[in-house]
Amino acid sequence: MTMFHFFNCAILTFGPHAVYYSATPLSEYDTLGTSVKAAVVYLGTALVKLVCLATFLQVSENDGFDPYQELLKALIGFIDVAGLYFALTQLTHRNISQNHKFQAVGLGWAFADSVLHRLAPLWVGKGARIHMGYILQGLEANANLVLSISLAALASLIWLRKNKPKTLIPIIYACAGIVATMPSITSYLRRGLGWYFPKVVGFELFTSLVMAFISWQLFFCVPKALCMSSRVYALLYHSKYEAVLIAHQFTSQASYVVLPWTTPLPTLDFYRLCSLKV
Amino acid sequence: MAALKKSTELLESVYSVVALLFILVACVGLCDAAAAVDVYRLIQYDMSGSPFGSRFAALNHHAASLSFPPGADLSRTVLIIPLRELNITFVREYITQKKPLGGLLFLLPEVLSFKHGGNKQVHEKEKMKKLLAELERLLVHSNIPYPVYFAFENDDIDTVLADIKKNDAMGQPATATTGGFKLVIPTAEPKKVVSPTITNIQGWLSGLKADGDANQLPTIAIVASYDTFGAAPALSVGSDSNGSGIVALLEIARLFSLLYSNPKTRGRYNLLFGLTSGGPYNYNGTQKWLRSFDQRLRESIDYAICLNSIGSWDNELWIHVSKPPENAYIKQIFEGFSNVAEELDLKVGLKHKKINISNPRVAWEHEQFSRLRVTAATLSELPVAPELFEGTGSLFDGRQYVNETAIIRGVKLVAESLARHIYGHQGKNVQIFADESSLAVNPAYIRSWLDLLSQTPRVAPFLSKNDPFVVALKKELADHADEVNVQHENLEGIFTFYDSTNARLNIHQVASVTFDLLLLLVLGSYLIVLFCFLVITTRGVDELISLFRRPPSRKVKTA
C-alpha cells in the first residue's frame, strides 16, 4: 500500500467526521470543545474496558464463538454506555442546545473510536499489499459514525429529556440497547456464523442507516417543550408565512403520527411559545 | 458573523494545505521496495574485439516468470528463472535467436552461496553440476545485449516469485489492481577495466650447497595458478579449480620448509614455488613469469610439477605431459609417482598431449614450460584438457564440491615423490611424511585455507596489485620460503574486461496509479455528496446555495 493509498483510506476513515462537523450547524456554534471532551471521555472508557477485559476475559485458543465470553464482552461493552452518559450529562457544556449536544458528543465519540481502532492498522500497514481490507475498514468507520450519533441521540433522549411519552420509552430503550450491543452482534456474525468481512461491513452500514432513521424519527417526534432549535427561531424571526406554517405542519404532523393523545397546539399558542423563548 | 467567516476561511486554508501536502507525498512515494537482494552480474569481456557476455548493467523493468502468457512482449520485462525450472533449450533459443528481452535473473539455490550456504550438502550434485556447466558455457560465449544477473534464493525472493507466478497465471498485465513487481538496479554503465594486472608470487627454498661446489644446484618447481574465471566473477571462488592446487602447494611448501630448516635434512635441490595468475587466459601469467627468468635458472630446473584441480577425485589422478612418454625424464617422474601411488592405494595415469605451437590455446600449465624447453607435467584429476573458460571456477565449484581427503592424499603423493627424488630414495619403501609424525600433512591447515579460498572470488582483472588476498598469499609463502618475489605484469593480449560485477537489486511493488486515482475520485465525490446532504438536511438548501455564491451584495451595501 503506497502513500497515496494510505491517504485514500485515511480520508475515507476520517473525512466524514470532518465533513459532518463542517456541514452541520455544529461548526457555527463552535462545539469543537464538546467533541474534544467527548473524545477524551471515550479514551477513558476504553482504558477502563481494557482493564476489565484483561481481568475477566479468558483468551480462547480457537476463533469460535463462545457465548459466555461474548456475554461478558457485551456486559463490559455497557461501560461504553456509562461513558456516554457521563459525557452527555456530567460534562459542563456551554449553552448548546440539546440537538447539537448529542451530535457533538456522538461525533467526538466516533472520531476517538476511529482513531483508536483504525489509525494504527492503517499506519502500520503502509507497506503491506492488502488493498481491500483498509477500504472496508473505512466504510466500517463511516457506519460507526452514524451509529455513534444515533446512540448519542437515543442516550440524550433517555437522560436529558425529562418528559417522554410513555409508549415510546420501551422503544427508545430497545433501540438504544440494540445500538449499544452492535459490537457483540458483529462479532457473533463474524465468528459464530462465519460471515466474511465485506458482508459484515455491509450489514453494519445497513443497520446504522436504519437505526439512524429510527432514532431521528424518535428524536424529532418527542416534543421539545421548551427547547427549540435556534434555526426554527431564525425561521420564525426573519420569517415568511410559509416558514411558520412549515414549522407548524412539522410539529402537528408529528403529533398526529406518534402522539395521538396530544392535541395539536393551536397556531396562536405556538406563536406565544415562540415569543416566550424569543 | 465575522467569527463564522474567519473559521470557514481557516478551515479552507487548512484543507488546501493538507491536500497539497498529500499530493506532494503521493508523487514522491509512489513505489515501495518489497525486497532488496544482492545480485551478481554476468561477466562482460571482449576477446579480440568481439564482445561477449552481458553488455548492460542497469535494470529498470517489470518482472515476469517462466509462466508468462505466450505471445507476450518481453522486451521490457525481466525473466526470473530459478535453477530448478531452468530449461536450457529455452534460454539458448532466446540468446541465439536474439529475441528481445529486458533482462534475465537466474536464481541459484542458497546452498551454493558461500556467504549463507554454509556446509550443507548439495542434493543431486551431478545433475546440478551438468546444468550449471551448460548454462555457463552458453552465457560466457554469447553476446547478450541485456543485463544478466545471478542471485541466491531466499524467503523474500521466493514470495515475490510466487506472487509473480500467480499474476502471470491469471494472465494479468502488470499494471492491474493486484499490482506487479518492478526490478530496479541503479548502477552506472560498465566501464573497461584499465590495465588489469596479474601478480605472480614465487618462493624460493635454497638447497644445501656443498662447500666448493661451484655449480648451480638443480631446481624443482612446483606451480599452481591461483586466479579464476567464471560466469559470475563475484561468485567465482573456484574451490577445486584451482583452490585445491593452491592449498596443496602451500602445504607442500610448509612441509619442505620444515625439512629444509635443518641443514642436516636439507636436500640438494632448490625448490621453487610459483603461484601464478592469468591461468584462464592461456596461462599468460606463467609465460610472463618464465620469460622473466634468468637463462641459467631456467636451465637449472630439473622438472616442474603443476597442480590443477586435485580436490574432488576418488581413486585416480592423471599426469599430463607434452613430451612423449618414452622420454627418459618423463619416465623417471612417472615411475616415481606410480611407486608412491601404489603405496597410497591410488592410481596414477599418464596422458600425453602434443603442443601445437601455432595454436595460441594453452590448455595445461606445463605447456608453457614445455614451450621454453623445460620438462614439466601437470597433476590433475581431469582426464582431458578443459576448454577455454571451462573448469576455471564455475558456479558450482564451491566449498561443497571439494573433498579435503582428496587434497590430503594428493599432497602426500606429490610430497613423497619429490622427497624421494630429492633425497635419492627412489624405489625404497620409506615414508618421509608419515602420519602422526612431525612431518605429517596437517588437515586443519588445509581446511582453513580451503575455507578462505572458497569465500574469495579471484578473477584476475578485479584483483588489484595490493589486493588483501594477494598480500596474504605472499605472506604465507614468505613464512615457508627463504625468499619471496612478487612480479606484477599487465594482462595484455586479446582480452578486455568490464567492471560492475555485483549490485543491489531493489524489488518494487507497483500499485497501479489509475486505481488509486479512481478511488480518490470516488471518495471525493462521496464526501462532497455527504457534505451537501448534511447541509441540506440541517440548514436548508438556501445555505448550500449561499456557500457557492460569494456575497457580492456586501460590497454593494458598503458602496
If you had to describe this structure to a student in words, what would you say it looks like?
The complex is a heterodimer of chains A (278) and B (559). Chain A is mostly helical and 278 residues long. Chain A folds into 2 domains: 3-227, no CATH class; 232-274, no CATH class. Chain A contains 11 helices and no strands. Chain A is globular and about 50 Å long. Residues 225-278 of chain A have low confidence and may be disordered. By secondary structure, chain B is an alpha/beta fold. Chain B has 3 domains: 35-192 and 501-510; 197-490, Aminopeptidase, CATH 3.40.630.10; 518-558, no CATH class. Chain B has 15 helices and 19 strands. Chain B has an 8-stranded mixed sheet, sandwiched between helices. The radius of gyration of chain B is 34 Å and the shape is elongated. The chains are: A mainly alpha (278), B alpha/beta (559). At the A-B interface, helix 1 of A face helix 1 and helix 13 of B.
Question: Outline of this structure?
Answer:
The complex is a heterodimer of chains A (278) and B (559). Helix content of chain A is 76%, strand content 0%.
How do the helices and strands line up, and which of them pair or pack?
The complex is a heterodimer of chains A (278) and B (559).
Chain A: H1 3-23, H2 32-56, H3 67-90, H4 98-124, H5 132-160, H6 168-180, H7 182-192, H8 197-221, H9 230-237, H10 241-258, H11 267-277
Chain B: H1 2-28, E1 32-41, E2 44-47, E3 50-54, E4 59-64, E5 77-82, H2 88-96, E6 103-108, H3 125-140, E7 143-144, E8 148-152, H4 155-169, E9 180-185, E10 197-205, E11 219-225, H5 239-261, E12 270-276, H6 284-291, H7 295-300, E13 301-308, E14 316-321, H8 328-344, E15 347-352, H9 366-371, E16 376-380, H10 404-423, H11 443-453, H12 468-480, E17 483-490, E18 495-497, E19 502-510, H13 513-539, H14 541-548, H15 552-558
Helix pairs in contact in B: 5-10, 5-11, 5-12, 8-10, 10-11, 13-14
